[in-house]
Structure formats: structure tokens, C-alpha cells
Amino acid sequence: MNRTIKISRYMRRAAGDFAADRRALAAVEFAFILPLMLVLFFGTIEFSTGIAVDRKVSLTANTLSNLLSETPGVSPGDSATITDTDLQNIFTASIAVMMPYRPTPTNAQISQVYVDSSGVARVQWSRAATIASGATQATLTSSTHSPGDVITIPSPLVVNRTYLILSEVSYRYVPTIGYVMASSGVNLNDVSYSRPRQSSCIVYNNVPVLVGNTTCPLP
Question: What is the value of pTM for the model shown?
């Protein structure tokens, strides 16, 4: 009988000691919380970087349209002329704008749009460019727009018989870790519109065609 009582007391004491032991509790709790902490940590980094890159894409689009719109004309109100070299230099500016992020995935294109007397916006000319890995200059490529293409522009910009400069920039942001966001990347893009500031329009490859003077045609 006494032996049974002693065993019972020992088992109760052992159970109490086990319940009071907290030496591994912190490790168990940390093991449960760690995955959530990693998701929050890496997610914050990836989304913050993505937002910063998206802002750079918007700045690049604004920079390209503004640089082209500043091309000076022969005289106030007359046309301005731009060459492939000029366009290449303008596109190359995107490398500096995208820093400190890699500019290699950047794809950009610039178009001149004319809004006719009916309020229809048509592409007059368009040129695109890409930046190869490690390159210090942009490479001109064919645009997705063709002369005569009708495009939709914001209604406040629909002013009949006026010219617009349209820049479009796309960038594929690939997170370094890919722990939370898609490891294959996210497509970022933005557009920007500007009006020629120092000329009536900008002539590229003799488009628009000037007949007998340097004043941009307003059909």
C-alpha cells in the first residue's frame, strides 16, 4: 500500500515538474512564428523595391517626353527636326533615370501624335529603343505603333489641330529573392504626354511633310 502511495506521489511530482518546465517553450514559439516573420520581412523588401522601381518607370516616361518636347525649332512657332542620333541620346537618358536599378529590362518608345480637326488622334511617327545588359547607349528598334494608327488619349488633351509627344515605358521587375512576389517578375509600365514647347511640331524622317516652309502643317 505504501509503495503504491509513493509511486502516485512521484508521478504527480513529475507531472508538475514537466508542466512547470519552460526551458524549450521559447524555441517552440519561435519555430511557429519564424515563417510569418520571414514572409513579413521579405515581403516588405520586395514590395518596397517594386514600388521604388515603378516610380522610376514613371520618371523615365516623363523624362523622355519632356526631353523630346524641348527640341528647339528654327524660330518660335516653327518646326523642329530630330535625327536618330538625337533620339538615341534621349533614350539613353533612361539609364541615368533608372539608377540605382538595372536599366536592362527597360523598353521605351516615343511617338508624335496629331489630333485632327475631328478630334481623332493619329500617330505620325514612332521610334522605340531597348538597353542591352551592360550597355551605355540605347539601341533603336521598331515601334509597336505605325504611322496613321489611331490611339486613345486622355480627353483633356484632345485639342483639335495640335501635336502631342507620347512616351511609353515598360519594365519587368524581377524580385531578387522571390519569396513573396512572383519570382518570374511583374510588368510595370507608364505613359507620359507632352506638347512641343519650343516648336509647333517635331519632324522625324521628313514627317510631317513641310511644304515650302518650316511651319508645321495643321490639316
Answer: 0.79
